[in-house]
Amino acid sequence: MFEVILTSSIQVVVVIVVVLTGCAWATWLERKVLGHMQQRIGPSYTGPYGLLQPVADGLKLIFKEDIVPDSVERLTYTLGPMLSFVPALLTFAVIPYSRDFSLFGLEFKGVISDLNIGILWIFAVTSLGVYGLVLAGWSSGSKYSLLGGIRSSAQMISYEVSYGLSIVGVIVIAGTLSMTELVAKQASDSIWFFENWYLWRNPIGFLLYLTCAIAETNRTPFDLPEAESELVAGYHTEYSSMRFALFFIGEYANMLAVACVATTLFFGGWNGPAFLSFVPPVIWFLIKVFVFMFCYVWLRATFPRFRYDQLMRFGWLVLLPLAILNAMVTGLVVLWLG
Amino acid sequence: MSIDTVIFFISAVVAVFGATMMITQRNPVASVLYFIVSLLAQAVCYVQLGALFVGAMLVIVYAGAIMVLFLFVIMLLNLRGTEDLGASTGRVSRFTKYLVSILLIAELVFVIKSVFIPATTTGIMSMPADEFGNVAPVSKLLFTRYLYPFELTGVLLLVAIVGAVVLAKIDRGDKKRVTDELEESAGQATDGTAG
Fold it and tell me: By three-state DSSP, how is residue B46 classified?
């Protein structure tokens, strides 16, 4: 019992540190990649290739004055940033990043908690993340914030159903809700190490998941809750200093979580090619997650923002029927093939 | 005292506390927040009983979706707790209020007295992983023993959705008719008070 608690605590600390560092340098990645895609060079003064930019940003945000407007509802105003940040971190509790390994004489599992309903845990905590944005928007006592909060709740409700249904295909094929089992079922010993990835067996499910996930994380082209050209900064207009930074980190932690879940569900998790078995599995996992993060930035550089009615029409009239159809057809095929 | 008992008592107390605070708040947003706290504590209770799936569904469906909808409506109407939403204080309504309360309390006492409560609670620590309240057992029950109630609930929800759409959707031709009716009834109402 003591050893389990010790190894779990070490894993929790390491995962939180890695995720927060990852978030910080994801902002660097975003600015750098966006810069080059727009024929600029992005941050370049702080450190080599501007690599110390996140440190500079963090220091600046810590030392900024924390301004709280008079018109806010104190309690919910304080709760808002926390509620958007904590659920994003909780997601990582069930994401398997490696096979079981031993280090310094201690036996580690490749995941913090191997819940047998791992995917449902992820959906449960991410569905709570919206409260941060909604409450922040409502309690700020500002029109722009309120509009941002209302938009974000409407958007969440509209895309949550398709989001949940998009992974039903994979679950039906795999017959399990456990993240570690999902990864184990996508392993392959052949030279075509990617042959068992669920991406090939349920490509529509993957596209649906990706679309809904971008909408759920409020990223372009679905970033209407913080559309700066019409709502100043949406739900976090009235926030400054570290409170604002919490929203910022929360958004990037959510992006990382989505990248990790997509890797685990559709891209074989930490499984790598069998002929390169000397490489630690966590490296493969990080490479796949990095590719996803890059695609996220790429999408932002490519697509213009939706108009609000387009967003709603797309969610209810395109995504939802497609998601239901995908779940039904996958179920029928699995039943038919036995 | 085992760790299961400790978890149960903490989550049960939080659940009851959240529910009590929910009905005593004037500010609707605070009510919603306390309701969410109560729901989360109830989910912990389910998980502690080994019913992981039921607990997760409670969080996903109620705390994650339905309460967002509540919050959305409250924000859209911009209720801030200053509106007078209290019940009327007439003699009839007061009588009904007390009558319903007494009936509910009697029902509660009756239920508690008649239901068998096992002396020992099983907890997640002493529970095999794939026991009751998980995906396979719950779905097996839903699609065999409780198939008709399950399907009937689905039909009921469908009827509710269709009804809401019918009420909300007014065609161009119908619009005039409905507004006419509204005006008519409004006119009658004022006539009534005037008379």
Answer: helix
Structure confidence by residue, pLDDT tens digits, B52-92:
888 888 888 888 888 888 888 887 776 666 666 566 667 77
Determine the Cα–Cα distance for residues A307 and B87; give it in Å rounded to an integer: 42
Chain B: residue nearest A137 by CA? B75
**pLDDT computed for residue B104 by the predictor:** 93
Q: Is residue A18 part of a domain?
A: no
Query: Taking CB atoms and an 8 Å limit, are A160 and B65 in contact across chains?
Result: yes
Q: Is B79 on the interface with A (CB under 8 A)?
A: no
Residue A177 burial by CB count (10 A; 0-12/13-18/19+): exposed, middle or buried? Answer: buried
Interface of A to B at Cβ within 8 Å reads 73, 76, 115-117, 120-121, 123-125, 127-128, 130-131, 134-135, 137-138, 146, 149-150, 153-154, 156-157, 160, 164, 177
Q: Which domain holds residue A240?
A: 71-337
Parallel, antiparallel, or unpaired: how do β-strands A101-103 and A106-108 relate?
antiparallel
Q: What is the pTM assigned to this prediction?
A: 0.80
pLDDT at A152: 82
Q: pLDDT under 70 in chain A at which residues?
A: 227-228
Whether the predicted interface score ipTM is above 0.85: no
Q: How many domains does chain A have?
A: 1
